[in-house]
Each structure stands twice: as C-alpha cells, then as structure tokens.
Amino acid sequence: MSEGIGRLAPLVPLLPGLPLAAGLVGLLLPPSPRGAATGEDRARRVAIALGVAGAAGALLVALALLTRVDHPVEASTTWVDLGGLRVTLGYRLDGVAVLVATAVAAVALAVQVYSIAYLKRGPHDDVEVDHRYPPYAAQISLFTAAMLVVVVSGDLILLLVGWEVMGICSYLLIAHDRRLPEAPAAAVKAFLVTRVGDVGFLLGIALLGVSAGSFKIADVLAHPYSTGTLTAACLLLLAGVAGKSAQFPLHTWLPDAMAGPTPISALIHAATMVAAGVYAVARLFPLFERAPVALTVLGVLAAITLLLGAFAATAQDDIKRVLAWSTVSQIGYMTGALAVGSPTAALFHLLSHAAFKALLFLAAGAVIHAVGTTLMSRMGGLRRGMPVTFWCTVVGLGALAGVPPLSGFWSKDGVLAAAEAAALDGAGPTPQWVGWLVWLAGLLGVAVTAWYATRLLLRTFFGATRIPLADPHDPPALMRWPVLVLAVPAALLGLAGFWGPFIGRIFAPATEAELTDFGDSLTHLGAAVLLPLALLLAGAGVAWAGWRRDSAADPARFLGPLRPVFARAFRLDDVQHALVVRPTNALARAARTGDELGVDGLVEGSGHAAVGLGGGLATLHRAALPRAAAGVLAGALLIGLAVALIGVAS
Amino acid sequence: MTGADLLLLALGAVAVGAGVLVVSTKHLVRAGLYLVVCLGALAGDYLVLTAELVAWVQVLIYVGAVVVLLLFAVMLTRAPIGASDDLDRPGWPAALIGGGSGLGLAVLLVDAFRWSRVELPTAGTADRLGEQVFRSWVLPFEVLSVLLLAALVGAIVLSRPDIGRPGPVRSATPAAGDEGGRA
Amino acid sequence: MRPVVPYVTAALLFGLGVFGVLRRRNAVLVLMAVELMLNAVNLILVTADTTVRAQLPHAGQVFALFVIVLAAAEIGVGLAIVLQLYRLRASVAVDEVPLTEAPTPVPAGVAGVAADRSAAGTTGGVDGPEVRG
C-alpha cells in the first residue's frame, strides 16, 4: 500500500497547510464595520469562506489519505543543522495519525460552520454584531493547522511549534468575547498554566533530542537511552502533557476556559488542545514503555484527575462547566489507559470522545443560544421546544456515560478492560497496583459519570420550564446540521471497532509488548462488561430517583455538605492561588519595588547627584571678580610650583 | 660690576619701589603718578639693554597715552582728592599669592642665570627692528591692527549705550513692532 | 652685564602686579596693577633679547612692541567697561559687581516678541494626545 501513498505523498503537507494558509490569509482581513447588518459585509463572508474551505480541504485530504495509509510512512528534509544536531521538516504518517487528523478536521469543519450562525446577532439580541469575526475564523483555522502539525509531524521540534501555536490560539480564542469580564482572566490563566507545563515539555524534548543527536521522532524512538535520562525526559514531557491535556495538577485552566465562545470550547475539548497531550504520549509511547516510573506517575495522576473531574462535574450549575469537568474526567480515562500500557485503547477513547464531546458542546451551544444563559437552574423543559437538540444531547450523554451501543461504551470498555488486565494479570509495563488504581477509579468514574450525565439531561430538558418568557426552539440550519452530523459518529464510532480496516489503522503503531499483553481486539465483550453496566445503571438510577422525588430541585442537593466542595473542585483553585499565584505576585511586587527603589533609584540618584554637583560647581563658578582672580592666580602659582618641584626632582 | 650693572640695579630699584607705591598708596591720583615713575624707570632699563625703539615706544604709549587715560578714568569716576580708606580689602591672600609668584619667579631666574655675565650688543636702531617687524612678523602685525580696530569699535559700543539697542521711542512705532513680530 | 638684575626686577614687579590685582578694590587701580604685570613681562622679553641667542634677531623686542600695543588696546576697552560700570552703579568697586542681572523693565517691543515666543513654545511643547495602551 505504500505505493498508494506514493501518489498521495504531495498531499500530506497540505493537511496542515490548507488551514494554515486560510488562517494566515484570514488574519489579513479587516474587521467588519461596526454598524454593519449581520452577515452582510464582505469581510465576514470572505472569512467564512476561508475558514470553511480550509477545514473542508483538510478533511478531504485526511479522508483521501485515510483510504490509502495503513502502515507508517515518513519523509523529511533537513531544516536546520545545529552543529551536528539535525532538525528536520517532515511528516510521519501512520493509521492513527490519519484517524486523529480526520477527527480534527471534521470537528474543525463542524465548528467553522456552526460558528457562522452562533456568532451572529439573534432576532432578540440587542448586542452589537460580532465585528471581529474574521480574526476569529482565522484563529480557528490556525488552531486546526497547529493541531494537524502536531498530529502529522515527524520531528519533535516541528511538533513543539504546533504545540506552542495551539497555546497562543487558545489564548486568543478564549478571550474572544470581550464583553465577558472573566474572559481575559481566563485566557491569561489558560496561557500561563499550560505554559508552566510547556516549559517541562520543551526541556523534555531538548533532553531527548540532544541525547539522541536528532530530533526526528523515528531516530528518537530508536535511540537506546539510559534509564535515568529516559525517565527524566518522560517526566518532563508529562508536565507538558498535563498542562495541555488538563491533567491534575495543571487542570485548573480548563473550566475557566468556558468563558470562550461555545464552539471554541467544542474545538478545544474535542479535537485540538486537550487531545494533543494524549496524542503526544501515544506517539512517543515506545519511550514511555521503557520508563515505567513515568507511567506510574501518569497512572496516579490519571486516577486523581478522573475522579476529581467526575466529582467536580456533579455539583456544577453551569452546563458548560459540567461538560468541561467531564472532559477532565474523560481525559483521565485516556491517560489511565496510557499508564497501564495500552495507547490503542486511549486513542480509541480519544476518537470517540472527540465525536461525542464536540456533539455535546455544540448541542449545549444550541441550548444556550435558545435560552440565553448557561445556568441549568434557569433551563428545564426544553425537550418539547427543541427536539433535535434534545435527541442529539441524549446520544452525546449516552456516549459519555457509556450506554451500549453508543461509541463511548466501546471505547471506555476498552480502557477498563486494559486496566483490568493490568490489575488482575499484571499486564503492561507498570506495577500491578497502578492497574488496580486506574481500574477502580475508572469503575467509580463510570457511576459518577452516569449520575451527572443523567442530572444534566433531566435538569435541562425535563420537568417544568424555569424560563418564563422565552420560546425555546431548535437552532437554525447552520447550527443544526453540524450537530446532527456529529451525532452519527458519536453513536456509531464504537461499532467501527468491529471493522477490519479501522482496527488495522488504529493498531498500526502498536508495539509488540502491547499486542501480547492486551491482544489485538478493540472491543471486549464478555462478563467483565456487566460490572460497568451495573455501575452505570446505579449512577443513572440514583440521579433519576432523586429527580423523581422533586422534579424542580437539583439532584445535586443530595451531595449535602460536599456540594460546595465539589462545585469548587476541591478548592484546588484556592490552593493554586495560595501556593503559586500569591507568592508569584509577592515576588513580582518585590522585584518591582527593588527595581523602582534600587535600579531606578540608582539611575535617578546618579542623575540627581550629577545635577546637584553641577549646581554646586555652578555656584562656585559664579564668584565675584576678586575671588575668581585669586583662584586663577593661585592656581597658576600652584601649577608653576608643581612644575618647578618636578623639574628639581627629575 | 660694570656701569651698566649699576645703572640697571638703580633703575630696577626705582621701578620696584614705585611699583610698591602704586599697589599700596591710598591716593588714587598718586598711584597713577607713581606708575609713571615706574614705567619711566623701565624705559631707562630698556635703553640700557640697547632696546632704544622699545624704550621710546614705552615712553610714548605707556607714559604718554595709557597713564593719561588712566588718570582721566580716575577723574571721570569722581575719585576723591586725598586719601581714601576703602581702596583695599584684607591683604593676606593677596600678599601670599603675589609674594609667592614674585619671589618664586625670582628664585627660578636667579637659579637659572646665577651671577653670569653677557656682553651687551651694540646699540640697536629702529632700522633693524623695522626690518624684522615687516619681514618676519608681518602677519602678526596685521592681525594686531585688526585687534586694535576691534578694540576701538568695542570701546565705542561700550561707552555709547544708545547704539545697537532699540530704545523705547523706536520700538513704539508700528514698523518696529512688525519687525519684532517677524523676528 | 649681569642679566640677573633686570630679571629679578621683572619678577618682583610681576609679584607686585599680582598683589595689586588681588588687593585693590578700585577697578582703575586693578587696571594699573595689570599694567605692572604687563611691563614685567616686557622687561623679561627685552632682557631675553640680549641674553638668549634666538633664531630670528630681535624677536624679544618685537614681542615687547606687540605687548605694548595689546596693552593699549586692553586699557581702552577696560576703561570703557569701567566707565560704563560707573555710569550704571555709581561705583567702581570690583567686589560690588552683581553676578545676577536685576529684573529690568523690558521695552514694549521686546516684551511682545518674548510673549510670542513663549506662546509658540507652549503650543509646540505640549505632547501629542495621550496614547492609551
């Protein structure tokens, strides 16, 4: 088949290239004039065309490659040669890369189309037309391009470039809505927190590349590192992964990032930003396999993140924050699968998660669009007014909770089966207790996920309506169709686990150890499935029972005193504030004071001293004639005396 | 000791004595007159040193012009006739510096020449000096003439305050006002 | 001839001149002391002309002539300044000369020009509109 890719090889650079070009051209567009009628001005139309064309082009390229690629191909040219340290410009394409690229491009296209209608003045909306649509669409294109670079890159430096561009794009897009007071703070927080991790990522890449003498991923994977170097490098990489993928303890930015527009949340959560960390670990998994310490750390973090996110999601009132915390939790499943040694299960969950989380966010956007608020306490009873959104949300939440036969069921079951194998049989590179930790946390997570998914559905779509005036209705076609189209993979992607070509592609980069430990089957139907299913029913049943008793009240009231703790995510924000933000601020203040008093004081003091000295000298110079004459003549006398004495002495 | 030496010694003593009186007398007019004595004694010195032309120029310009000008200035500034008490300020720094420079120079010169002896050249004439001035030193001579002209103009401008400055009468006219505005 | 005699005479006269310049308060007397110093230098030049063999003959005497001319110019300008000082302040004491100029009533034309200049300076000196970050 590699001769098949031979003809398609020139297409590979187009994969990130098309959205990149669309984004760069889009940034040149002028903003829409402020008073323009919605959708009437040319800049907006050009921006829409560019954004959609870029994403659609990338999707077509990805699909074309998907039909041809089944085993790894790569090509590269030398970019720079830093004294024997070669940085290459190239791609490394395997089945997984193309699958993820397809998912990214598909979600990006859905988001681009959805944004056309979402960022537009509604009939009852009196706020100004969003005149910054052109940069918004261009930034989405850049974001997509950066993620695609990360996906197909064959070189760690190129991967880092895409990684960093994603960071700046997320910053710009989260801060897009300038009317929200919290948006700039959320953007800065996202940028800073991920940046903390990125420092580790950069150092890890440097360590790997310098030790191997090349930054090419193939060379790095083949290089025999010493255990110490490898463990250190993997731990450093994990810092970056934790930042981008919102893993404990760097997860705090993700819920705050909900200040961004809802399509951006869908993009960040489903396709680009948070998936990048998991994908990077999966890409470099042969290295992690040889560093069980790093995987153990990852496993512990995954278990913490999984439960933390799930419990935090139970008590949120903001629909987007529920989904955000569910993302944190689901990414915990993926990193858990990576930790027990099964990147294939992680990537399968990543793909299905991309589908159903994009669907959920876009559906939530439709709800927010119709209701005008993000608070679930002011929704309710929307089922009748918005049937399409309702059914799509049911599919998405079912997939999230893991209801068979929706996609989430199969992929989450794959993760749990891998963890179970690691726990019971000692499979995988990590110690057995890590498997137990991930497995138990995953099982508990299933129940909690079912509970909050049920709560979200009931609070939003069932019961009596809590909005007196509005007349909720399904969104316009431009928003409805992306949601409907995304519902298809959200429902059916799990069944692809039975389809040969899909299995072949997703197992393409799998290592021998993984295949012997976990088998080469994506789906695991057996008695073990019954345990998660029982937990799922229990979680959903408890929530439903609570709602039945009083359909107007929030089921979260049963959490009792834990509710505020969960709502504030175990106060980790406060901990972070106390441990990092305040000392940093104090340090900044001290530095500023030192600068103002010390450095500035020195500079200004020397200026003052010079001025004062000059003034003093000027006063000395303004002497009356007698004193001046006495000075001049005495000086002349002294000089003459000195000359005479020197003459005598020599 | 030759006659020339005795003559130089006597004339020097007269010059220094008159100089002491110039800087110490309490009568303004007498200071000018002692200056005449001092400068005349110096002219005698020049004659002994065979510099006839310099001696006569000294008498003509210094004694004849400069001292007269100084006496005019003394009179124009309404100097009191008789002794004045406010001519001097406390003298010790002046004595220190003046004595230091005078005695220091004297010591240097004595150290340099000891009691050596030179033959005086034959008495010079204006002829030889004029040849030097107009042959070797003609450029400085011309520059000096320009300097004298500048001093002349400067003295006139300084002593005539109504030259070169707009008086109140001129500036009150509209034309002068416009000129000022343009400036 | 012993050259040391006129040399020492000149040195003593120079010292007297320095003493006089520093001691005297009256500007005319200060000028007289300056004349003493100049004459001391002249004496040295003329004596040197006889005792030191120079490249050009009689250079010392030529210089003495030049110094006399300079002294004449100096005394002319100096006396003009002294008389102007006396006209302004009715005194020729050098240590009563003020170092800062007293504010004098400015003629109308000059005042107008000054006002124009200051106005132009104000408008030109104001910075552009404040730039906000």
UniProtKB/TrEMBL annotation, chain A:
Keywords: Membrane, Transmembrane, Transmembrane helix
Subcellular location: Endomembrane system; Membrane
Record domain NADH:quinone oxidoreductase/Mrp antiporter transmembrane: where: 153-420
Membrane-crossing residue ranges in chain numbering: 46-66, 96-116, 136-161, 199-218, 224-243, 264-285, 291-315, 354-376, 388-406, 436-458, 478-502, 522-547, 628-649
GO process annotations (BP): ATP synthesis coupled electron transport; electron transport coupled proton transport
Alphabetized InterPro entries for the sequence: NADHpl_OxRdtase_5_subgr, ND/Mrp_TM, NU5C-like, Proton_antipo_N
Database matches in NCBIfam families: NDH_I_L (TIGR01974)
This protein's name: NADH-quinone oxidoreductase subunit L
Species assigned in the record: Micromonospora sicca
From TrEMBL, chain B:
Transmembrane segment boundaries: 6-24, 31-49, 55-79, 91-110, 137-158
Catalytic activity: a quinone + NADH + 5 H(+)(in) = a quinol + NAD(+) + 4 H(+)(out)
Function noted in UniProt: NDH-1 shuttles electrons from NADH, via FMN and iron-sulfur (Fe-S) centers, to quinones in the respiratory chain. Couples the redox reaction to proton translocation (for every two electrons transferred, four hydrogen ions are translocated across the cytoplasmic membrane), and thus conserves the redox energy in a proton gradient.
Family, similarity comment: Belongs to the complex I subunit 6 family.
EC number: 7.1.1.-
Record has Transferase as a keyword: no
Keyword list, A-Z: Cell membrane, Membrane, NAD, Quinone, Transmembrane, Transmembrane helix
Record Gene3D superfamilies: NADH-ubiquinone/plastoquinone oxidoreductase chain 6, subunit NuoJ
Gene Ontology CC terms: plasma membrane
The organism of origin for this protein: Micromonospora sicca
Cellular compartments annotated: Cell membrane
Topology in membrane: Multi-pass membrane protein
UniProt KW GTP-binding keyword: no
Signal peptide (from-to): none
One Pfam family, short name: Oxidored_q3
Protein name: NADH-quinone oxidoreductase subunit J
InterPro entries: NADH_UbQ/plastoQ_OxRdtase_su6, Nuo/plastoQ_OxRdtase_6_NuoJ
Gene Ontology MF annotations: NADH dehydrogenase (ubiquinone) activity; quinone binding
UniProtKB/TrEMBL annotation, chain C:
GO terms for cellular component: NADH dehydrogenase complex; plasma membrane
Transmembrane segments: 6-22, 29-48, 60-83
Keywords: Cell membrane, Membrane, NAD, Oxidoreductase, Quinone, Translocase, Transmembrane, Transmembrane helix, Transport
InterPro entries, per the entry: NADH_UbQ_OxRdtase_chain4L/K, NUOK/Mnh_C1-like
Principal location listed in the UniProt entry: membrane
Subcellular compartments: Cell membrane; Membrane
Listed Pfam families: Oxidored_q2 (PF00420)
GO molecular function: NADH dehydrogenase (quinone) (non-electrogenic) activity; quinone binding
Catalytic activity: a quinone + NADH + 5 H(+)(in) = a quinol + NAD(+) + 4 H(+)(out)
GO biological process, one term: ATP synthesis coupled electron transport
Enzyme Commission (EC) number: 7.1.1.-
Topological type in the membrane: Multi-pass membrane protein
The family this protein is said to belong to: Belongs to the complex I subunit 4L family.
SUBUNIT field: NDH-1 is composed of 14 different subunits. Subunits NuoA, H, J, K, L, M, N constitute the membrane sector of the complex.
Protein function: NDH-1 shuttles electrons from NADH, via FMN and iron-sulfur (Fe-S) centers, to quinones in the respiratory chain. The immediate electron acceptor for the enzyme in this species is believed to be a menaquinone. Couples the redox reaction to proton translocation (for every two electrons transferred, four hydrogen ions are translocated across the cytoplasmic membrane), and thus conserves the redox energy in a proton gradient.
Name of this protein: NADH-quinone oxidoreductase subunit K
Provenance organism: Micromonospora sicca
Gene (name only): nuoK
